[in-house]
Specification:
alpha/beta, five-stranded mixed sheet, 14 helices, 13 strands, 45% helix, globular
Length: 327
């Protein structure tokens, strides 16, 4: 991504800042701070959506002088520059605020260039397909602000506590990390607020309804009988003839290796199913042990592991890939 840079020197940073009339988003982060990892993904997504802007990652402690010049007191902190002047500062892991700020300050630059941001308006059909996959990605799926470990609002915190008390296993999606999902799911489910709880892909409701269902005993009755992890993993592997386990979705891969794997499959016109391992840590960790393969992405054909990206590349180069899929 040519408009996303991680600086390696003060000189490189000064060169970026010297661009006149540029809109530049700065991301001050640290490798030890867990919220930074999530926000780095958000930052990369925004860079893909707004190619007319410059996005710059700065490891705060490695570039202390730069950090000091921008009065950085905590990480992550995001600074929006317009024509060399600071126009907005967002402190903390506030994905929605960052997205809104970048969108707002990008408008002027895009108007000057006569360009529109890539993927700003996504086809409803593609978004709905993604939402359908998300709500069906686990037997019990919740959409909350933040994570179960760090809920970002009182309602999300109450829901997480309730599910913990009921000893319900679930997967979660942080709506603050993806504005498309946050807004799209409201229309998809015809439900205007968060959190939202789905069982087997069907919307149960928000916090108040879940409280009522728990009190009446209806909630426990609705929870599907739990499968052991290995049974669940095998069912996922066999969900389609060709199944790929990646970070993110085919429309929005969350790492370079997943992006390359999706590109290979698309180039060869392969029909495939996918599972976003970032949506379920139990699957993410369990799959490594289950198939004795330590990394992602993983590609399966008819329930058998073919391998990771490097092996698939070798199979493509040798012609073996097409032979296996047409056997």
């Amino acid at each position: 991504m040519t408009n996303l840079t991680e600086i390696t020197s003060d000189t490189e940073f000064n060169t970026i800042l010297s661009k006149k009339d540029a809109v530049i988003a700065l991301n001050f982060w640290a490798s030890w701070a867990e919220p930074c990892q999530q926000m780095n993904d958000v930052f990369a997504e925004l860079a893909g959506k707004f190619p007319a802007l410059s996005f710059v990652k700065i490891e705060a402690e490695n570039f202390a002088d730069i950090s000091e010049s921008f009065e950085i007191a905590a990480v992550p902190t995001f600074v929006i520059l317009k024509g060399g002047k600071k126009v907005e500062v967002i402190e903390g892991a506030k994905a929605a605020e960052l997205s809104n700020a970048v969108t707002k300050h990008a408008k002027g630059a895009l108007n000057k260039m006569g360009a529109l941001p890539q993927e700003t308006v996504k086809p409803v059909k593609n978004l709905n397909a993604r939402l359908k996959a998300l709500v069906n990605s686990a037997p019990v799926m919740i959409f909350i602000k933040g994570t179960p470990q760090q809920p970002r609002c009182g309602f999300s915190r109450q829901l997480v506590d309730l599910l913990g008390e009921q000893k319900v296993k679930y997967s979660s999606f942080n709506i603050l990390a993806d504005e498309d999902v946050r807004q799209g799911l409201k229309a998809y489910s015809d439900w205007p607020t968060y959190p939202q709880v789905y069982i087997n892909g069907e919307l149960m409701g928000g916090l108040d309804i879940i409280k009522e269902m728990i009190e009446s005993g209806e909630f426990q009755e609705a929870i599907p009988e739990e499968k052991d992890l290995n049974t669940r993993l095998q069912a996922l592997i066999e969900k389609q003839s060709v199944m790929v386990f990646i970070k993110g979705s085919p429309q929005e891969p969350k790492c370079g290796f997943s992006r390359q794997m999706v590109g290979l499959l698309n180039d060869h016109h392969v029909k495939y199913g996918h599972f976003d391992i970032l949506s379920d840590d139990e699957v993410r960790q369990g799959m490594k042990t289950y198939v004795d393969w330590p990394t992602f992405p993983m590609l399966f054909y008819k329930g058998e592991l073919l391998g990771g990206l490097d092996i698939i590349k070798e199979m493509v180069e040798s012609g073996e890939f097409n032979q296996v899929l047409t056997a």
